[in-house]
Design brief:
Elements lengths: L4 E7 L5 H4 L12 H11 L4 E7 L2 E7 L6 H11 L5 H7 E5 L1 H11 L11 H15 L5 H20 L9 H10 L9 E4 L3 H12 L5 E5 L2 H11 L2 E4 L12 E4 L10 H8 L6 E5 L8 H6 L2 E5 L4 H42 L2 H16 L1 H5 L3 H30 L1
Parallel strand pairs: 5-6, 5-8, 6-7, 8-9, 9-10
Antiparallel strand pairs: 1-3, 1-4, 2-3
Helix pairs in contact: 5-7, 5-13, 7-13, 9-10, 13-16, 14-16
Bound molecules: NADP nicotinamide-adenine-dinucleotide phosphate.
Length: about 400
C-alpha cells in the first residue's frame, strides 16, 4: 500500500546541525554501518530501507506496515541512540508517509529543502546513499521506483528552473566569507583533510589563485592530489606537529568525530604569532576544540554560522523555488498511479509462466494421446493455435489491468 512508504527525518529546519548528529548512525569497527542498518531493518520489520545522512539532514526512508507515530519514532531513534528522550525526538523528527514522504524526497533531491537552496551536490549524495543501500540488499522494488522518479523529477527542476544557476554550496559560502576578509593571494593557507568537501575548497582556492597552500591529510595520496591542484605542499596528518611555517587561514574538514585542532596543536601551528587567524571548520561534528575558539584570536567560520548567508541565497531563489514546487507537484501526483501499475506488473509477472505451463500440460499430459494420433501438419497447426492463444491470454489481462489502474 502507498501508505507503507514512510520517512523519519531530522533536518536543519527542526534541529541544529550538531543535534542532527544524535539521530545519525555511528558506525564502529565492531558494528559497521551495513550491520547496523541490517539490524534496524530486522528489529523494526522494515521491508525495505534507504538511509541518507548528509551534513544537514538524516533520512530513514522505509517500507513498513507499522503505524508511524511518535511512539514508533521514539523506539526507532532510541534503538539508534539510547540517550535520546521522547521530547527531543518529538521536537526534532518529521514523520511522513505515502505521497507526503514522496513529496519530501523529491524536494530534498531538487535541493529546495536544503540549507543552501540550489546546491546540486545533494543529488550526488542521494545517489551514493541509494547505491550503497542497494548493494547491501536493504532496498527493494518500491524504493527503486520512488528513487528513479525522484531523479527524473529533480533533473527536470534543474533543467527548467534557474534554481541551480550560479551554483552555491556550503563550501562556496564559506569561501565567500573567507574572501570578505581580503586575505592576500600569498596568504599561508592550511588545508586539513582531503575528502570531498576540502576537494571543493581546493577548487575554489585554485580558482581564486591562492598560491601558498599546504595540505595535511591522514593518507598522503589524497593530500598530494589536492596539493597538485593548488601547486602546494602535501603532508600526512601525523607530521603536522613538525610544521613550522605558521599560517593565516586554516580550513579543517575531516570525518573525525573528535576535534583534531586541540590547543596543543593550535599553539604549535601558530609558531608564536598573535594576529587574528581565520579558522574555517566545515566538519560536523566540529574539528576545532571549543577551548581553541575561546582562548585564541580567531575569526571562526563554521557551517551553522553560514545560515544567514544561506537565507540571503534563499531570497534570491524564491521565485525559482515556487516554480520547482509546481514541477514536483505534478510528479508527486503521478506517483500513486505508477505505484499501482508497478504493483500490478509484479502481481502479473507470474501470468506468462503459468499460461505456458497450462499449454505444456495440455500437450504433454491431458491431450497427449489425442495429439500423438495427429499427422505432422495438423500437429503443427495445433501448436501454432495454442501459441497464438497463449500470447493473447497473457496480453489481455495485462491490458485490462492497466486500463483499470490508468
Ligand atoms: N559532503 C558535504 O556536502 C559536506 C558539506 C559540509 C560539511 N561536510 C562535513 O565534512 C566532513 C567531511 O566530509 P567529506 O564529505 O569531505 O568526507 P569524505 O569525502 O568522506 O572525506 C573524509 C576526510 O576525512 C578524513 N578522515 C576521516 N576520518 C578521520 C579521522 N578519524 N582522523 C583524521 N582524518 C579523518 C579522511 O582521510 P583519508 O583520506 O585518509 O580517509 C578524508 O580526508 C564531515 O564532517 C561532513 O559532515 C560535508
Amino acid at each position: 500500500m502507498l501508505r507503507d512508504l514512510k520517512i523519519l527525518t531530522v533536518t536543519h529546519k527542526s534541529a541544529s546541525l550538531k543535534e542532527i548528529r544524535d539521530f545519525v548512525i555511528k558506525p564502529s569497527d565492531d558494528f559497521p554501518l551495513q550491520s547496523q542498518l541490517g539490524n534496524l531493518k530486522e528489529v523494526f520489520e522494515l521491508k525495505e530501507l534507504l538511509y541518507i545522512a548528509t551534513c544537514n539532514r538524516v533520512i530513514y526512508f522505509f517500507i513498513s506496515e507499522s503505524e508511524l507515530s511518535i511512539s514508533f519514532a521514539t523506539q526507532f531513534f532510541q534503538h539508534i541512540n539510547p540517550d535520546l528522550n521522547e521530547n527531543r525526538i518529538a521536537a526534532a523528527t518529521q514523520l511522513l508517509e505515502g505521497t507526503d514522504a514522496i513529496a519530501h524526497l523529491y524536494e530534498v533531491a531538487a535541493s529546495i529543502d536544503s540549507l543552501v537552496v540550489g546546491e546540486r551536490q545533494i543529488l550526488g549524495q542521494l545517489r551514493e546513499a541509494y547505491d550503497q543501500c542497494h548493494a547491501w540488499g536493504l532496498t527493494g522494488d518500491t524504493i527503486r521506483l520512488a528513487f528513479q522518479q525522484m531523479v527524473v523529477a529533480a533533473k527536470e527542476v534543474y533543467a527548467r528552473t534557474r534554481i541551480g544557476d550560479k551554483p552555491v554550496s556550503v563550501v562556496s559560502l564559506a569561501v565567500r566569507k573567507m574572501l570578505s576578509t581580503h586575505l592576500p593571494k600569498d596568504a599561508r593557507i592550511l588545508l586539513i583533510g582531503a575528502g570531498q568537501t576540502n576537494a571543493l575548497v581546493a577548487k575554489f582556492l585554485a580558482k581564486q589563485e591562492f598560491a601558498n597552500v599546504t595540505v595535511f591529510n591522514r593518507s598522503l595520496q589524497k593530500a598530494e592530489e589536492l596539493a597538485k591542484l593548488l601547486e602546494g605542499k602535501a603532508n600526512t596528518l601525523t607530521n603536522i606537529f613538525e610544521y613550522k611555517e605558521g599560517f593565516d587561514c586554516l580550513f579543517v574538514c575531516t570525518g573525525s568525530t573528535d576535534p583534531i585542532i586541540q590547543p596543543e596543536l593550535y599553539e604549535q601551528l601558530l609558531q608564536g604569532e598573535t594576529d587574528t587567524k581565520i579558522v574555517i571548520d566545515l566538519a560536523i561534528p566540529h574539528n576545532v576544540a571549543p577551548e581553541v575558539i575561546e582562548n585564541y584570536n580567531i575569526q571562526y567560520i563554521e557551517i551553522e554560522g553560514l545560515r544567514t548567508l544561506a537565507q540571503e541565497n534563499l531570497a534570491f531563489r524564491e521565485t525559482e523555488v515556487e516554480k520547482a514546487r509546481q514541477i514536483l507537484a505534478n510528479y508527486v501526483a503521478e506517483f500513486p498511479t505508477l505505484f499501482k501499475q508497478r504493483q500490478l506488473e509484479r502481481a502479473m509477472s507470474r501470468v506468462p509462466e503459468e499460461i505456458k505451463a497450462v499449454k505444456a500440460k495440455a500437450l504433454s499430459e491431458v491431450f497427449r494421446k489425442d495429439v500423438e494420433q495427429l499427422d505432422a501438419s495438423t500437429r503443427e497447426l495445433l501448436e501454432k493455435m495454442l501459441t497464438y492463444m497463449e500470447k493473447k491470454c497473457i496480453a489481455v489481462p495485462m491490458k485490462v489491468a492497466r486500463e483499470m489502474v490508468g
